[in-house]
Amino acid sequence: MRYARVSAGGRAVWGRVGEEDVELLSGSPLEAVDRRTPDDPGLTVIGTVPRAEAVWLPAVVPPVFYAVGLNYPRHIAHCGAEVPVRPEVGYRANSALTGHGSPIVKPAAVTGRFEAEPELVAVIGRTLRNATYEQARASVFGWTIGNDVSARDWQHRDRTFWRSKNSDTFKPMGPWIETDVDALAQTTTLRVNGEVRAAFPTGDMVFDPYDYLVEITRHITVRPGDVLWMGAESTCRIEPGDTVDIEISGIGVLSNPVRPEGNSA
Amino acid sequence: MRYARVSAGGRAVWGRVGEEDVELLSGSPLEAVDRRTPDDPGLTVIGTVPRAEAVWLPAVVPPVFYAVGLNYPRHIAHCGAEVPVRPEVGYRANSALTGHGSPIVKPAAVTGRFEAEPELVAVIGRTLRNATYEQARASVFGWTIGNDVSARDWQHRDRTFWRSKNSDTFKPMGPWIETDVDALAQTTTLRVNGEVRAAFPTGDMVFDPYDYLVEITRHITVRPGDVLWMGAESTCRIEPGDTVDIEISGIGVLSNPVRPEGNSA
To answer: What is the ipTM score, two decimals?
Structure first.
């Protein structure tokens, strides 16, 4: 099943995505999932929009937005960093989220490398504390795609990632949440203007999402709607005028145009 | 005016805090404030609870939770750090929030210093981007108090602050939002079991909240309900069995008992 958030009548509405249409739902499948199965969240259909006309919003607005940094061996080697010995997370800000199809705005003040990072995203469906690995596996509601857009000069110069990774529009997430996929057996492909810039096995991670959830929930209660971005193996430069697509097989394609600041198009 | 969030009938409800009672409100004053003044948010009273019986929740659940690190000259000198040359923020996680009166739980795994940090918190009431200093001033809806509870061994050892500052219950915030106070002209006092451990001028900051909002909104849209924790001049150790009070004159007292993990009292 594919669940998305779309704009309908000026409101954010959950939808079930079919081949031709998006069925608008009476509520959130994430709030229902503790009581029912993902395929029967007890929601009613309140309308329909043609899929081609849908305005996609961030796949979920998480209560807490977790992000993994160094998690792919090739990326770690590329950064000259040490392989982490335990799973550690950071945070991103919801203010940076944007949906599939919406522009990534490159700030005028960014002069260094401006890059896309293609990431698998786990969307949590259950409340979890002191989880076992199996409980962590069972807690994932579904999977979506994130682009951890980064301004490298700010990333290296600032004390935190506050603007390098959290400026407005720097966190596209979508297009939807896929509940029926073996996410770690897929391939992640990054394209700019249709040209492949990176492709890697999605599951080739130092620690998998369940390892992270076991570690996080030793100290922190994870809740439905929380997201865990899993890091990237490869990145690439993007510039205004480009269209950046991230495909994860079995999930979908997250596509966003890049615009310069001050251009409202 | 003092606005709080309290638990009523198992739900979180906004309230207006008087001397004897908390008047329960039909909605959030933060969502009304773009249209009206803080003193007339256009809300109706739907019930009353005696103030002595109120169960206090975090004063607000912010869309984005900003936190300032080094911002008081004495604290910076104590840390041996350089005085920041521009305002930079980090993030905390809503999962760590708890209300006035609720326990701070010290994890069993924490062996090093476990400390309280008394902080002024600005609560934003307007949507803000590319703000001037005066627009930033006008955007603050009111002020509350935060305790940036920190486990120092984790803070120094981990790559991020994920568990050192964001474990469950590590972010008490409350008891309420005070809209009528000159917050930067107050005194912050930290007490453990009634004994004063620190007292400092609340406004003795390197950069004030408006400086931060000007800098943040160069890159990021700030929205109603966002909070900005302003850092602390002094900290002190806390242990299970203690009660830690943070008073900011003109705002109120945030009081929390400290409990060991595994003790449900």
So the answer is: 0.94
